[in-house]
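Mods, move this if it's the wrong board.
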Amino acid sequence: MADEPTNGELARLISQMDVRMDSRLGELSSRFDKVVTLDVYTIQMTHIEQRIAKADADNRSNADAVKKLEDDFEKYQRDQATKREEDRQKRLYQAILPVLLGLISAAIALWAVVSK
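Not the wrong board. Structure tokens:
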């Protein structure tokens, strides 16, 4: 019987356990206050998934728009380069043709003078 605690010691141990249980239950209660219900969680996750899907669709449509814009810009650059080349050729022919006609006229005139 010497190893067994007395009634007073048992009462103190029980009151200490009671205090610890109260504090732990208080902590648990405060944690439960932060927990959301499954319904609320499901609704929030569904909303988040919808927002992510919409953002993904927006990103894809923006990527398609950027690709189309880049293609249009490349086509514009090719068209402008072709137009510049055509204009250069026109100016070249506009400069060469009168000179060539003048040389041919001078050659004919010279030939006419020499052949008399």
